[in-house]
Design a protein that fits this description.
The chain is an alpha/beta fold. The chain is built from 6 helices and 10 strands. The chain has a 6-stranded mixed β-sheet with strand order 4-1-5-9-6-10, with helices on both faces. A two-stranded antiparallel sheet has the order 2-3. A hairpin with a 2-residue loop joins strand 7 and strand 8. The protein starts with 9 loop residues before the first strand and ends with a helix.
Length: 237
């Protein structure tokens, strides 16, 4: 891939804390022979639109794996940003502040690449960033179309009774009759620096969608998800 010309300074942040209740050491758990986080590191390093890449972690083992694979870890994440309830935005804001001080620069675009969505491609990241750069939008977030999890197929329990979460056109509608609905897949959150830092938002007032297929949208949250990712990788290989 040739170098993509851009006047924008783009910081990519891979957030990877050490703790995980569902799957211990999730971010460095082996997937087909290599730690999970490396899948995200590899595609980010190959993305020509990214200026600087950093891993935000509180864990020395994650830091070691990252550095060994050519990624900077010039600081550790504060403990208050590494809890189960810590939010993504202040975590990425911290990385921006630290990297701008480290590099003596001010970034134009910031992109968060979570290691738990390992199947995104280099093209996904590049196209997503170029769409944002070439637009007047504040942010762009990757999504995937929902099918069986469509809100018109979902139910809720109210006073012990089963009711529609969102009333469908007909009872138990076939998928073909459902209007398209999308869910954030966790792969790419890109935003203009000032939107993130001053508005505390990835979306801002005007946010673009970047639609990805199901096979690249698996978001790992359980041991079953790891098995699914490994099956997809094995099939592609």
């Amino acid at each position: 891939m040739g170098k993509i010309e851009s006047e924008n300074e783009v910081l990519a942040v891979i957030p990877a804390r050490g703790g995980s209740r569902g799957v211990p050491k999730k971010n460095i758990r082996p997937v087909k022979g290599k730690p999970l986080i490396i899948y995200t590191i590899e595609v980010a390093k190959r993305c020509e639109v990214i200026t600087d890449l950093v891993v935000s972690t509180d864990d020395p083992e994650i830091s070691k794996v990252s550095v060994e694979n050519g990624v900077e870890v010039p600081f550790f994440r504060p403990a208050e940003l590494a809890t189960d309830t810590a939010l993504a935005i202040p975590t990425i804001q911290h990385s921006v502040k630290m990297m701008e001080k480290e590099k003596e620069t001010i970034y134009d675009i910031v992109v968060m690449l979570q290691p738990t969505t390992p199947l995104r491609s280099v093209s996904d990241i590049s196209e997503c960033l170029q769409l944002l750069i070439n637009s007047d939008a504040d942010g762009i977030i990757s999504v995937v179309q929902v099918n069986n999890s469509h809100p018109m197929k979902m139910k809720k329990i109210v006073d012990g009774l089963l009711v529609d979460y969102e009333e469908p056109l007909v009872e138990n509608p076939p998928r073909q009759l459902l209007p398209p609905v999308y869910i954030v897949n966790g792969a790419i959150y890109a935003t203009r620096r000032d939107t993130l830092m001053h508005e505390d938002s990835f979306m801002g007032n005007k946010c673009l969608p970047y639609t990805m297929p199901e096979e690249r949208s698996v978001n790992i949250d359980s041991k079953l998800d790891f098995k699914l990712v490994e099956a997809i990788i094995a099939n592609d290989g």
